[in-house]
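pinging the channel bc i need a second pair of eyes. not urgent but kinda urgent?? the chain im working w is below, pasted from the shared doc
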Amino acid sequence: MVVTAYIGIGANLGDARANVQDAIARLARLPGVSLVDASSSYRTAPIDSSGDDYVNAVARITTALPAEELLLALHAIEAAHGRERPYRNAPRTLDLDLLLYGDERIASASLTVPHPRITERAFVLVPLLELAPAVVVPGLGAAQDYLASVAGQAISQL
């Protein structure tokens, strides 16, 4: 079974823009994954975090990998970029989040899909809607319906 999934990508340490682009390239090379498209890159201020502004994007992939296996592959890409997790929302060289995995709703010890804050962050909604204007968040409805609630969060296309 092939599933369409959306991956949130962000970085604010090192060459954040290059790290985001490299993550997209690495997604395209993952076995069992096909990169369909990637959004533009966006600059955003940290939310519940510190450090420099973030560079964010969203990638749309198709995959035959189970969600948990895809998550492990995303963590391996983060590790290749020296990702450390010293505390919650720490600045990062690279952050990859599994935002949507088909129309599935997953709640396991290691993975929650849809991503629990998908409708609360402009840095996720804006690039997601660039790729898929009519995307529906399982259990929550049209992503477009949440855009007004994040309008106060600064975001600019790079």
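so The chain has three helices and ten strands. and Helices lie at 16-29, 67-80, 122-131. — does that match what u expected or am i reading it wrong
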